[in-house]
Amino acid sequence: TEDQLVTPWTYSVASGYSLLRDPQYNKGLAFTEKERDAHYLRGLLPPATASQQLQERKLMNTIRQYQVPLQKYMALTELQERNERLFYKLLIDNVEELLPIVYTPTVGEACQKFGSIFRRPQGLYISLKEKGKVLEVLKNWPERTVQVIVVTDGERILGLGDLGCQGMGIPVGKLALYTALGGVRPSACLPVTIDVGTNNEQLLEDEFYIGLRQKRTRGKEYEDLLQEFMSAVKQNYGEKVIVQFEDFANHNAFELLSRYRTSHLVFNDDIQGTASVVLAGVVAALKLIGGSMSEHRFLFLGAGEAGTGIAELIALEISKKTKVPVEETRKKIWLVDSKGLIVSSRKDSLQHFKQPWAHEHEPVKDLLDAVKAIKPTVLIGSSGVGRTFTKEVIEAVSSFNEKPLILALSNPTSQSECTAEEAYTYSEGRAIFASGSPFDPVEYNGKVFIPGQSNNAYIFPGFGLGLVISGAIRVHDDMLLAASEALAGLVSEENFAQGLIYPPLSNIRKISAQIAANVAAKAYDLGVATRLPRPENLLKYAESCMYSPIYRNYR
Fold this sequence. Notes:
Helix content: 40-55%
Mean pLDDT: 95
Distance between the termini: 20 Å
Strand order of the largest sheet: 8-7-6-9-10-11-14
Shape: globular
Number of strands: 14
Number of helices: 25
Largest sheet: 7 strands, mixed
Strand content: 5-15%
Radius of gyration: 24 Å
Structural class: alpha/beta
């Protein structure tokens, strides 16, 4: 943990003016009289002193006065660049209020306008200009002990498409959550954007665009740059650094995950994190809709990274529980893509990651007909296209299910397959609903329904912490199942009574610690953990390793 590290005063922190300019150590008015004398701060601060609690109250008061979410985002970014501990204190204490600002949906708008709102650079930008020099670039980063890297190439940012270099908002946001929700030290986190150009004409013509002004590079040149990056990361930070791929286009996401999963500690949140959080929701929802996993039929709209990733993890879970081979359990799961239901007669024209889902069935052109033909008990949207769960679709699913489970997962809110209100209204208040982006509670027929949020933030921070505390060197699918089961087990009777299938985000640090303990336990069981001996109580150990944003006293 951070508190077990020696603070490297001699080279890291000078005193006086430069101390106030260092976000890692600056406390603003919270420097005590004694500290002001000891560190040459006299006169550089107004005479008053303020506690961290008072600073927090003042800042939350300021942030709440902004009407526009992007203004709140910019105020928080500015705070992070000025006073790191206060930023994380705000985020941890007000997680439900600030999560939609720091992450979806506001981060999507921030990425779209990133060039215009760009102030101080955060993270590392590795472009084609750095080819052959990636290791040198990594050495320019001031921190030596990096534990988590989140990397994007900006080609598929949320449901917003190719945002090129401006995708940096995503790794920065994800890593803020790794610290706030998962307790990984901020200094151990490194956001990276790989810039190989963009096919977004609007950005290429935008005078404020901050990336390479060229079409996206593909093929060998792209692969070589990624290979150089992965090798340099291992060389510079060792075997145990987590590399989380984020918002890569489908064809690259699957390719990179399968290429590096046997040689590096890699994780793709769009494929694996989404799958794990959705599986947790489905496992928890069984308490409300009845039956075991193997008795349900699943229909997906969207067969990209998220859809196929979720489908595969559900098939694995059913296979584990029933001891039936995964090739058989996949047959309970059907996927619809832009050309209709994925069936065996289409097999030759399908991308490789869709092929396992091509089952025997006559062709079906659209979602509504697929719902009528398959009669699913669980409907999952991961298409990135808004308003695709129409009134007719929801009514059809509700007609043969007493309590249909409807998950509209696409982000941001504008891309959600349906709203919470539509799900509850068209199902006459019978649907169990969760979405990717947050929705407000809905009143229907005098009853208030609280929509759940199937947010990856439930899984990846705790998952990453589990890998860090066990010193894991590889990610295994069984760890994802362990994370899902931990999350599903934390939904209380009180939550179920409100129709929720996820615990409230306000308990997220406790949830992350439990997930970390489960993931670490699985790493030890599988023999991929290197931190020995194994701690006796993994939950206590996970909690003791979590970063605390409370100010430290300087001597």
